[in-house]
Amino acid sequence: MAVPLLDLKAQHATIRDEVLAAAMSVIDGQTFILGEPVGQLECAVAGLSGTRYAVGCANGTDALLIALRALGVGHGDEVVTTPFTFFATAGAIHNVGARPVFVDIAPTTYNIVPDGVASAMSSRTKAVIAVDLFGQMAPIEAIAAVARDVPVIEDAAQSIGARRRVEDRWVMAGEAATIGTFSFFPSKNLGGWGDGGMMVTQNEALFEAMSKLRTHGSRRTYYHEMVGYNSRLDTLQAAVLLAKLPHLDTWSAARRENAAFYDGAFADVAEIGCPVIDPRNESIFNQYTIRVPKRDALQAHLKDAGIGTSVYYPLPLHLQPCFAYLGYQEGQCPEAERASREVLSLPIYPELSRTQLEEVASAVRAFFGR
What we know:
Elements: H1 8-29, H2 36-49, E1 53-57, H3 60-70, E2 78-81, H4 88-95, E3 99-102, H5 114-120, E4 125-131, H6 140-147, E5 152-155, E6 163-166, E7 169-172, E8 179-183, E9 197-201, H7 204-213, H8 235-244, H9 248-265, E10 281-282, E11 288-291, H10 295-304, H11 334-342, E12 343-346, H12 354-367
């Protein structure tokens, strides 16, 4: 039985009528740019993330770029971040003219280490970008503590709806950072029919700045207070996401159930390192990522068995050719480098059947002679 890494058709089949009705309402209304669903989605995501304000934009990469611009980050500045993440995190730093400063990750959660952030900060540090990798939040409260007055952007592209216990209450992804950013790329837990992104904040001045930056630096047509971007969230995407949003909690719960199945299936295989979830976190499992020796051989074995997998990420950002000018060498972020050689993500999407889960687990176990 073939089991893909992700099956968006399976999800679509369960909500087809709802999503098509939402899309048709936009088509019939013919308001495709900043129509009413955009504002409705912004309110809904602000509510979900426990923030006062939300601003939709064209994609998750632009969300990071606009967040940095709103904070005044530019040429000659430094931004501390992780090397073990999707390229957009560091690419956005570069594209505002700043310099990425990479800090190694925890070997268990793969998230950035607060002590490393503290050591990497300098007088040129103008922001920190913490990434919530694979669906669980970074230790945002500890990062904010070491950052002190330096703003913290939470790259929550993989963690919408995730939460973390801080002191005596749950904090949602995006809530405690200076700015939180989301992606609605189709493969995300809440994905659209194309690209989409959003920024959330508690700060009114940042909300105003981001609202201007997404529309050419303008709040009033043809009057521009700054040079911004054409980065609006399409009305059609907003309508699709609004139709999907009520299902997000159920989908996330199903992902956690699937993760628990794998945890049990691999518990007796010493060679497999299952995901480690910080006990203060509730993950949404955007990915179920194991660590194994002979990762490439296992991936080839699973491909032959018809099992979809992916490696997130095969080369850490500090070693990417485009960042050679930064002067990083192999060995400077050893945990990120080791993870890049060992990680493999397995199918975790909510619509997986028990038979499919068993097929994946059996194929993995067979590789290790179980």
